[in-house]
Amino acid sequence: MMQSKKSKFGISSLSLAISFALAGTVISSQAFAEDEEAVNKENVEKIAVVGSRAAPRSIGDSPVPIDIISSDDLKKNGSTDMIDMLVTSVPSFNSRAQPISDAATLVRPVNLRGLPSDSTLILVNGKRRHRASVIAFQGGGINDGAQGPDISVIPGVALKQVEVLRDGAAAQYGSDAIAGVMNFVLKDASEGGSITVSQGEYYEGDGAATTIDGNIGLPLTDDGFVNISAQYKTADATSRSVQRPDAAAIAAAGNTSIQDPAQTWGNPEINDDYTVFINSGFDINDDTHLYAFGNVSSREATGGFYYRNPHNRGNVYSNDGGETLLVGAVNGDQSTCAVVPANVPNVLDTPEYQAMVADPNCFAMNQIRPGGYTPQFTGKIEDMSFFAGVKGELGEWMYDASAGTGSNKASFGLKNSLNPSLGLDTPTDFDTGSYEQVETTVNLDFSRFVTLGGIEDISFAAGAEWRKESFEIGQGDEASWIAGPYADQGFNIGSHGFKGFGPESAGKNDRSNIGIYTDVEAYLTEDFLLGVALRYEDFSTFGDTLNYKLTAQYVATDELSFRASHSTGFRAPTVGQENVVNTQTSIVNGDLIQTFIAPPTNPLAAFYGGEVLKPEESVSYAAGLVYQYENLFLTVDYYNIEVTGR
């Protein structure tokens, strides 16, 4: 457990009995405000709107499972990392550290209800959050190939509360909401603030971390607010390593170039991790409200890779499993060079190796890295978003019109590595290229209450949404991808461990989609609530989809109620998943193997049977009960999610 010290300097106190959230495309209105006030007077409860376009209600009165985590609840964790805060606060929400996992080390994937990170839709102030540019090729199994949002850029100091809908909601919110929806509600106070300084480490000299965060609320005349939150973090790497047996044996045989430990297993080093969130709102009049919010974030991370053994690493030190050393010839004729045995305690001490080094025509990578090497994977993550909109009332209708954009760029690098095909002239540090994800969303929603067939206060909502997303692969420096003059002698091509993106891989792809949807919810009797949602979406790349959702709640007594839901859902393959190119190193049967990942449109992938990606489809069932008696609040829920086309 990390030991920490905190100091807090209050600018002025903030007090809030109940937090109300705007989620999805729900519009606050005078009627909704009256409902909120009534609930507030009767029960000091947490109120949520996510999961329903009807009036806000307490989580105990919701027909679907919802968790609300307040800002104070998040602080109790003791961590300043948003993912760690949520893991200890939200049922069925999990994440694990990714010590040696390529890009997954830079953006930790998360899981809700046992599904990949890109099966959970992330909202901020009820608006769709853009996904990260990183695709987790080594995501611990469940997240392999997933491209979900990076929620670690959202600091706890910026949040009023987090709403978690643990139910399928693609019929309400669109693609990705198979596992559920998480809505991060930003603080909206017009006064007060705080500054917090946190320092800690796991053990002396291990993982020392410093976090400085602050929040301030400012009035925007008497009719608005601007709330600003900022956080800055640094963290040293952690190590849970012991010396590898193979490295220890070579060191014991006299190789003094072996590092101890040769390979580090632990969290990456984090530098210059900063994020700024701004939330603002302004009432033009009693019926019209303007709002805008966004963020700018950046961080740098350095993580480890697997150790490259100087006796047997394929295509670097040996090409026959470690029987002999891989020796290159400047003149192209390897037969003129000495055969150097590698299945010895220390290859550097053999006369054959000494003879090879003395021959100016011959070389081996041991001359550059005699003790082997462990590449360091570096990355810089840059993230930004901005949303603006207007909402209000037009007669009996409530409306919300908004537009926003967000981007996430990951720039990759590799240190302490080689491009063996360049021979002894290889650099050891590489810029391997970048991924960038950009999304734009335009949304228009209407809602009102109607009376039909003698049933009053039927909540009716409808809307439309247009989205465009692009994924761009940026080219790495030439040394990171080029096939050098010794490639045909069996030496690895490109920066070893994470090959750079060449001109054939670089490029930009995009797609757009439009969705229309409706949502109806009403109490058919005083005790029975029924809801129906329907959503149609058409994508420019693979066609259209139609999904529905049914929800119901029966209030048996003042203390006991039953709830159930049934829905269909889908998750469209991301533009990144459709077009990504990557080379990774993984362990297969105890051996390090380099794997090339190509998009299904690549001729090589097509030759081996690759097909164009299609949407994942889901069918979800859930049922549960809610029991409330005095200070006891108990929920029991069952769910079953069937996903096809993964």
What do these coordinates show?
By secondary structure, this protein is mostly beta strands. It folds into 2 domains: 3-308 and 374-644, Maltoporin, Chain A (Beta Barrel); 328-363, no CATH class. It is elongated, with a radius of gyration of 28 Å. The chain has 8 helices and 29 strands. The model is unreliable at 1-44 (pLDDT under 50). The protein has helices at 30-42, 71-75, 82-87, 170-173, 245-252, 351-358, 575-579, 603-607; strands at residues 3-12, 47-48, 57-58, 66-70, 93-94, 111-112, 120-124, 127-128, 159-165, 180-186, 193-201, 209-219, 224-235, 269-285, 288-304, 328-329, 362-363, 376-394, 397-415, 430-452, 455-474, 507-523, 528-539, 543-555, 560-571, 582-588, 591-597, 616-629, 632-644. The strands form 6 sheets. It has a 16-stranded antiparallel beta sheet with strand order 1-11-12-13-14-15-18-19-20-21-22-23-24-25-28-29. It has a 5-stranded mixed beta sheet with strand order 4-9-10-7-8. Strands 2-3 form a two-stranded antiparallel sheet. 8% of the residues lie in helices and 45% in strands.
